[in-house]
Here is the input.
Amino acid sequence: MTTLCQPRHRPFAYLWRYVAARPISHAVILCSVIAAVAFSVSTQYGIKLLVDALSSQTRQASVWTAFVVLVSFIAADNFFWRVASWTGSYTFVHVTGDVRRDLFRHLTHHSHSYFSDRLPGVLTSRITATSNAAFTMENMFFWNVLPPCLASLGAIIFLASVDLAMATTLLAVAGVVVVVLFRYASRGKPLHHSFADKAAQVDGEMIDVVGNMALVKAFSGLRREHHRFDQTVQKELRARRSSLLYLERLRTAHALITVVLTLCLLAWALMLWQQGSASAGDVVMVCT
Here is the structure.
């Protein structure tokens, strides 16, 4: 019990316990994702080689060389994504089981007075919600957070081969955007916590009413329980709507910044092409 209570205000430290418990499988996923992103970004460089070869005077040998390079990058990209996905299908599921087993044992070691003023449905639903949150966090990190970060780093490296000033500018703007979006996202934490709490209350209410259905009907409490449950669901709906709308505002801001940044980079690449400092393949690589 003491071990589980130590990281109670540090969710990443808590999750790291379960990652460290399965180091090999998580290392395989991490290395596979890094390799997949590297080959995915390199695919854009393969397209650049192919475009440059098609626009050159001596086409024959260089075109097929660029073709082989591009196909190899695409095949390796898909292969490593499948390795990461297959490994994650086993590893992430095992982590959810570890979380539920530990939390259930932690819960059963509490005293009798702990359960006197807490609904059993709320407690059990929070154990399930915590395991689902661990699954979601691992999925989001390996599939939604890490790949874009690595891809952005790879894109900056390839942009540096076209124009160092362009890559430096992109790096500076990306750093500012990350800090601003992170601060804005962190301000929505109370909304997300409120939604999680309300969702747990809805599950708890349903479990408690169904578990005591005989008493509810014996005292003609169906109408009262229906009304109370409707109010609980309505509070959960408002909390979920607020959480989702906050995330949508964050996504909208990110989309607008991405569009503006892409247009600026494309215009910059076209000016370099007009000056003879960039090839047609370089312009295509900047676009993609």
